[in-house]
């Protein structure tokens, strides 16, 4: 995704990473708001000899067992060097793993060596070497169904990970831990977890506001009237802006996107008067955050990427302006 103006966010994240680790940072926001692109930009601008990143993009991984998680987190020493020798291009700065000797890696996979102890050992060495380690997990909620096998019971891996993250940040101040996600119900679960109170920070990376979007579009060469037309239809969604700007016919591209959104929403709402009622109320400007009886329906619409649910700012809104327009047409209700 092309990177556009995020000066405020970049400044905040740089300052945060330069401070002593003291909390887990959750970066959340609507899908394709540019969370990963933003953090990669920050990573590239910070001194490379002062920071080391262990970055795991769980969106691209097939993770079904605890063993597959370990194989993702840990690699045998020399794997990166070997990969570089055969790679056709330079490995991205955000690629990392905990390197272990072959013997220790085998012990970890067998369960004879505590993986958290080994991770801590590596991170402590980074600190002693004058390096600031940063653990980054993109869409960590994919691990919610993974369990640690033990003789007496099965413990959720994600609970153990968060206990470990708290120890790394709040207790020992060894490493920053950043968790990025577009699953805001996962954020709500963490936010409401009493064991994580006063151990976490939350930072929203949202779509661009209209003023910023206008500046972007004018800088990309659109006249003001055409830029305002684009904003009126698609708002400040980075990936939609990028696709529209790459088109030879902006009007036709927006029309195509709208028809796609309209068709998908029509199918999602077919025979679902309960979901239609929720959307009507959102169109009327009502905030359903506090209505406990309706929250499961809001969650369903959020999973369909029609609504965006923000548990930190306590709001419910349409995911994009195209979703809002499609709902208006299907339901015959104007936003108030």
What characteristics describe this protein?
single chain; 336 residues; alpha/beta; Rossmann fold; 2 domains; two-stranded parallel sheet; 15 helices; 49% helix; 15% strand
Describe this structure in words.
By secondary structure, this protein is α/β, with parallel strands linked by helices. It has two domains: about 200 residues, Rossmann fold (3-Layer(aba) Sandwich); about 120 residues. Helices cover about 50% and strands about 15% of the residues. Strands 2-5-8-1-9 form a five-stranded parallel sheet, sandwiched between helices. It is globular, with a radius of gyration of 22 Å.
**Major β-sheet profile:** 5 strands, parallel
Assembly type of the chains comes to single chain
Helices and strands, in order, run as HEHEHEHEHHEEEHEHEHHHHHHEEH
How many structural domains?
2
Radius of gyration: 22 Å
Q: Any idea of the CATH topology of the largest domain?
A: Rossmann fold
CATH class of the largest domain: Alpha Beta
Instruction: Enumerate the strands of the largest sheet in spatial order, edge to edge or round the barrel.
Output: 2-5-8-1-9
End-to-end separation: 33 Å
Q: Which runs of at least 5 residues are low in confidence (pLDDT < 50)?
A: 85-94
Per DSSP, the total helix count is 15
* Strand segment tally: 11
Determine the CATH superfamily of the largest domain. Answer: P-loop containing nucleotide triphosphate hydrolases
Provide the residue-averaged pLDDT. 89
What is the level-2 CATH architecture name of the largest domain? 3-Layer(aba) Sandwich
The shape, in one word, is globular
**Structural class estimated from helices and strands:** alpha/beta
* Beta-strand residue fraction: 5-15%
**Helical proportion?**
40-55%
């Amino acid at each position: 995704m092309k990177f556009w103006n995020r000066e405020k966010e970049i400044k905040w994240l740089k300052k945060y990473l330069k401070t002593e680790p003291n909390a887990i940072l959750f970066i959340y926001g609507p899908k394709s708001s540019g969370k990963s692109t933003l953090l990669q930009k920050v990573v590239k601008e910070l001194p490379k000899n002062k920071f080391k990143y262990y970055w795991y993009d769980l969106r691209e991984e097939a993770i079904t067992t605890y063993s597959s998680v370990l194989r993702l987190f840990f690699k045998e020493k020399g794997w990166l060097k070997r990969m570089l020798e055969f790679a056709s291009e330079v490995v991205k700065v955000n690629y990392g793993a905990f390197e272990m000797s072959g013997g220790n890696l085998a012990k970890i996979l067998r369960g004879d060596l505590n993986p958290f102890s080994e991770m801590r050992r590596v991170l402590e060495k980074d600190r002693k070497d004058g390096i600031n380690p940063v653990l980054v997990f993109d869409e960590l909620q994919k691990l919610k169904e993974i369990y640690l096998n033990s003789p007496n019971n099965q413990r959720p891996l994600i609970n153990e990970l968060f206990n470990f993250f708290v120890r790394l940040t709040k207790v020992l101040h060894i490493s920053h831990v950043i968790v990025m996600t577009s699953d805001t119900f996962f954020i709500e679960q963490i936010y409401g977890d009493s064991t994580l109170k006063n151990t976490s920070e939350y930072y929203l990376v949202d779509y661009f506001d209209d003023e910023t979007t206008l500046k972007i579009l004018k800088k990309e060469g659109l006249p003001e009237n055409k830029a305002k037309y684009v904003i009126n239809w698609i708002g400040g969604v980075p990936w939609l802006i990028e696709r529209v700007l790459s088109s030879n016919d902006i009007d036709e591209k927006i029309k195509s996107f709208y028809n796609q959104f309209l068709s998908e929403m029509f199918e999602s709402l077919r025979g679902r008067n309960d979901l239609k009622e929720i959307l009507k109320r959102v169109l009327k400007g009502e905030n359903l955050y506090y209505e406990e009886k309706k929250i499961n329906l809001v969650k369903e619409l959020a999973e369909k990427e029609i609504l965006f649910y923000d548990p930190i700012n306590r709001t419910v809104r349409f995911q994009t302006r195209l979703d809002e327009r499609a709902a208006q047409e299907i339901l015959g209700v104007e936003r108030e």
